Amino acid sequence: MEVLRRLFDLPSQSCFILGPRGTGKTTFLKGRLPQAIRVDLLDPEQTRRYAAAPERLRMLVEAQSRPCCLVIDEIQRVPELLPVVHGLIDEQRGDQFVLTGSSARKLKQTGADLLAGRAILKSMHPFMAAELGVLFDLDRALRIGMLPIVLGSPIPEEVLRTYAALYLREEVQVEGLVRNIGVFSRFLEIISFSHASVLNISNVARECAVERKSVEGYVTILEDLLLAWRIPVFAKRARRTVSTHPKFYLFDAGVFQSLRPKGPLDHANEIGGQALEGLVAQHLRAWIAYQGKDWSLHFWRTQSGVEVDFVVYGQDGIWALEVKNTAEARSQDVRSLRTFREDYPQSHTALIYRGRERVMCRNVLCVPADEFLRQLRPDGPMIRNMPDDGLRMG
Predict the structure, then answer these.
(1) Residue 168 carries which DSSP code?
(2) Less packed terminus of the chain by CB within 10 Å, N or C?
(3) Are strands 317-323 and 307-314 parallel, antiparallel or unpaired?
(4) What is the reported pLDDT for 118?
(5) Residue-level pLDDT at 392
(6) Cα distances (angstroms) measured from residue 205 to each of 214, 215, 216
C-alpha cells in the first residue's frame, strides 16, 4: 500500500505518541521527520545498550548540531530514558523529542508524569475511512479492520491472525504480565463476546473459570496495551435512572473478528452488528482524539433497557448515534434516539445503518454507514449537511 496522508496532527514541541502496534506511528514519523535521529527500542541491541546506560542518550543528543529532533520508538521498553529526556528538555536548547509507545503500563508504573507539561500526549489510531479515500471498502473493513500493518500486507488475513499472538509473545508473556498465558488466551476469546456490549466482569470470570479479580486485571492489561477501552454511561442531568456498567470495545474491528470464535451456533448478522458498531466506535474515538477539542464519548442506557449506542458530548453540542446492521431504517430502530431527545432536546440524533440512502425516519436522520465513515474528518462536523433542527424535532 502506498504511504497515505494521515489526519494526525504532529505537534511542533516534544510529545508522546501512544498507539497499538501496527497503527503506523513509525511510518508516519519517518515521513514527517525524515532528518530526525532515531532510537529504535524494538531493536534488541539498542534496547540492551540504553537499558545498561541511559546516559548514552544525552551523549547522543549533545553530539548533534542544535537544535535537533530525536525520535525514540517504543519508549516503554526502556523507561529509564525518561529522566534523561526530562533533563534535556529542561535545558531549553530547542530540541524536540518524539516518544512513541504501544503500552501505557510501564509508563504509568515508572512515572511518565516526569514530563508533565513538557511533552504533549497524543494518540494514533487505526486508519480512518477518510484517510483511505477511494481505497476504503466497508465490507472489507468489517472483515479485516483498519490497521495499517494489516491493510498494507499482501496477506492481510494472515497478519491479522498473528496479531494477537504477537502481543501475547512480545508484551504479555515476555513482560510477565500474567502467570498463566493459557488462561489469558482463553480470556481473549471469551472477552471478544463482550465487544460492543455492556461489560459484565462476573460473567466473563465464570466463563473463564477464574476469579473476578483476575478478569479485572486482564481487562486492565488490555487497556494498558491500548488493545481495548471502556466507555461510561452518559448521566449528565439524567432525568431517568441509568445503568452504571460501562461498555467494552476492542480497538479494531479486524482484531475483534480474529479473536471472536465462530461456529454453527453463531449468527453472522450478530457478529456483523458487533463489528459495525466497533468500527463506528473506533472512528469516533479517532475523530475525538485528532480534533483536539473537549469531546467525550459515552453511551446511554436506562435501567428499563432503553439504549443509545454512542453519545458524544462537548462544548459544541451533544450527538446521539445509534448503529444498526440493517438495510432498512425502521421506526423501532430510532425509538431510543427519540427517547434520548425527549430528555435532551438540544441534542443532534442520527441512525447509522447499512442502507444506501439518507432518509428521515420519524424525524430522525438515517445515514448510510459507508457515507458516515467516509465523511468523518477531524476538520469537519460529526455529520455534514445535517438538516435544520427545526425540521427534525417532534
Answers:
(1) I
(2) C
(3) antiparallel
(4) 77
(5) 44
(6) 8, 6, 9
Count H helices and E strands in the chain, helices first.
Answer: 17, 14
Which residues are bridge partners to 247 per DSSP? 231
Q: Beginning with the edge strand found earlier in the chain, give each strand of the sheet holding 228-231 in spatial order.
A: 197-198, 247-250, 228-231
pLDDT tens track for 345-356: 999 999 999 999
CA distances 1 to 156, 235, 281, Å, are: 11, 43, 25
In this structure, which amino acid lies at residue 8? F
Which CATH entry fits the domain spanning 286-392: 1.25.10, 1.10.30, 3.20.20, 3.40.1350? 3.40.1350
- Which cell goes with 167? 502481543
Where do the domains of the chain lie? 15-123, 129-235+245-268, 286-392
Percent of the chain with pLDDT over 70: 95
| pLDDT band at residue 391 under the 50/70/90 scheme | very low
Which runs of consecutive H residues, i.e. helices, occur in the chain?
25-32, 44-52, 56-62, 81-90, 105-109, 129-132, 138-144, 148-151, 156-167, 181-192, 201-208, 212-224, 253-259, 268-291, 335-343, 369-375, 389-392
Per-position DSSP letters for 26-75, written without gaps between them: HHHHHHH-TTSEEEETTSHHHHHHHHH-TTHHHHHHHTS-SS-EEEEETG
CATH fold of the domain at 129-235+245-268: Arc Repressor Mutant, subunit A (1.10.10)
Question: 3-state class of 9 per DSSP?
Answer: coil
- Averaged confidence pLDDT in the chain: 91
How far is Cα 68 from Cα 70, in angstroms, rounded to an integer? 7
Residue with cell 482463553: 186
Residues 6+ apart with CB under 8 A from 291: 378
Q: pLDDT band at 394, cuts 50/70/90?
A: very low
Kindly indicate the confidence band of residue 273, based on its pLDDT and cuts at 50, 70 and 90.
very high
**Residues counted in the chain:** 394
* Arch. (CATH architecture) of 15-123: 3-Layer(aba) Sandwich (3.40)
pLDDT tens digits, one per residue of 21-48:
999 999 999 999 999 999 999 999 999 9
The pTM is what? 0.94
Write the DSSP symbol of residue 195.
Answer: B
Q: How far apart are CA 378 and CA 283, in angstroms?
A: 10
Q: What is the Cα gyration radius of the chain?
A: 22
